[in-house]
Design a protein that fits this description.
With about 400 residues, the protein is of the alpha/beta class. It folds into two domains: about 5-175, 3-Layer(aba) Sandwich (Rossmann fold); about 190-280 and about 305-410, Rossmann fold (3-Layer(aba) Sandwich). About 35% of the residues lie in helices and about 25% in strands. Helix 1 packs parallel to helix 2 (about 45-55), helix 3 crosses helix 5 and helix 4 crosses helix 7 (about 130-140). It is elongated, with a radius of gyration of 24 Å.
């Protein structure tokens, strides 16, 4: 079989050298990669490097080998185009359809999925012009990965760092795995995912918590980003590294999680509550460490109920067409308890799985049944958590498409 054809566009930022690692990952995993740099990019990494690593000639001009019509052919034959790094200038050109070199011509002629991995200073990323350009590209179906937070050029630190090349590669791999010509079905959508387990403090050193690792929530976030969504991940006590292309909000308690979810859900198309939220918290917080007293039993710990976030966002949706997904971790009578919870919470989908000390928690695999409010049940066999994530987003995307279609019929 022919190798999948990937175009790696490189624009003129200091992070261009990191694209060499992305190129290595793509070629070593069996992809045929054509590097198309801008003239500015060659100030950072020379054409000889790109040619040697890719095995293809490198040019920035539409006039090189003009008889082969490269400004059209490269984009036409690609299975995926990824631009890393994508500077503010490149995002602006792509959004406005400018075509003044080989890379921008390629972007105009490509009919395959396109990924942009931005890298620039924080002020440039946050500028309204850049944000408008990003929004335009996302509306058209391009995947624009959220930049990472970290050290930038010089002494500056902030949001604008190129995501780790391994993580960009994983997004590309997932997009290619969906099949040639498959469009990112969550492009232009904003989704909110919660992950991890809340901790309810008893005193400065103790808390009530649970065993949730957050790995399923992170798989949901990574998969949604690969399918084109703008992702807000609200994580509680996972200790996991922030996934590429995702805005991450760190919280600790159920009350903090509720506040973050309600804020993020205000403009979200879908909310997936994968976090294990504590049902109760201590009624009182001890300012100092609770001491053990010889010969005395500890005083009982009074508990109060935490807010029911899933029921709240299901009942009071920020927008009528918003899709809400819950998770139910059960230890017995799994489906019976799941069906009852789906009815009580009022969400659209409920992912039900059996948990225990040696089941699911901390594992890279999962097994579940996705229950829908309309009575449809979708079993997901034991396998990687990414597989369950794909199924969840398949079901969410189907509902978003149906809702959008209904709205357009009413207006037309």
């Amino acid at each position: 079989m022919d190798k999948p054809k990937v175009v790696l566009g490189v624009s003129g930022g200091i992070a261009a050298y990191k694209a060499c690692e992305l190129l290595r990952r793509l070629t070593e995993s069996g992809h045929d990669v054509r590097v198309v740099p801008t003239a500015s990019a060659l100030h950072f990494v020379g054409a000889a490097t790109w040619s040697a690593l890719s095995g293809h000639p490198v040019s920035t001009e539409v006039w090189t080998d003009v008889h082969e019509v490269p400004h059209v052919r490269i984009g036409q034959h690609a299975d995926l185009v990824v631009v890393a790094p994508a500077t503010a200038d490149m995002l602006a050109k792509a959004a406005h359809g400018l075509a003044d070199d080989l890379l921008t011509n390629t972007l105009l002629t490509a009919r395959c999925p396109v990924v942009f991995a931005p890298a620039m200073h924080t002020e440039m990323w946050e500028h309204p012009a850049t944000q408008e350009n990003v929004a335009t590209l996302r509306r058209r179906g391009a995947v624009v990965i959220e930049p990472a937070v970290g050290r930038l050029t010089g002494a500056d630190t902030g949001k604008g760092r190129l995501p780790d090349p391994d993580q960009i590669f994983e997004i590309c791999r997932r997009m290619l795995a969906r099949g040639a010509g498959a469009r990112p079905d969550l492009a232009g959508r904003h989704v909110v995912v919660s992950a991890g387990g809340t901790r309810e403090p008893l005193d400065p050193v103790r808390y009530l918590g649970n065993r949730s690792s957050g790995k399923q929530g992170y798989a949901l976030a990574r998969t949604a980003a690969a399918r084109g969504a703008r992702v807000t991940l609200i994580e509680a006590n996972t200790g996991l590294p922030d996934p590429a292309g995702v805005d991450v909000v760190h919280v600790g308690t159920a009350v903090q999680l509720r506040e973050a979810v309600l804020k993020a859900a205000a403009d979200a198309d879908a909310v997936v509550m994968a976090a294990a939220v504590a049902d109760f918290r201590p009624a009182a917080y001890a300012e100092g460490k609770i001491k053990k007293k010889d010969g005395q039993e500890p005083a009982p710990v009074a508990l109060v109920r935490n807010p029911d976030i899933l029921a709240e966002i299901s009942a009071e949706r920020a927008r009528p067409e918003q899709v809400v997904v819950g998770f139910a971790a059960e230890t017995d009578d799994v489906l019976a308890h799941g069906r009852d919870k789906l009815r009580r919470k009022g969400c659209d989908l409920l992912v039900v799985n059996e948990v225990g000390e040696r089941k699911t928690f901390g594992s890279e695999e999962n097994e579940a049944v996705v229950l829908a409010a309309d009575g449809v049940e979708t079993p997901v066999p034991y396998g990687p958590k990414e597989a369950l994530a794909e199924t969840v987003w398949d079901l969410v995307a189907g509902r978003l498409t149906t809702t959008a279609g209904g709205d357009s019929d009413k207006s037309g």
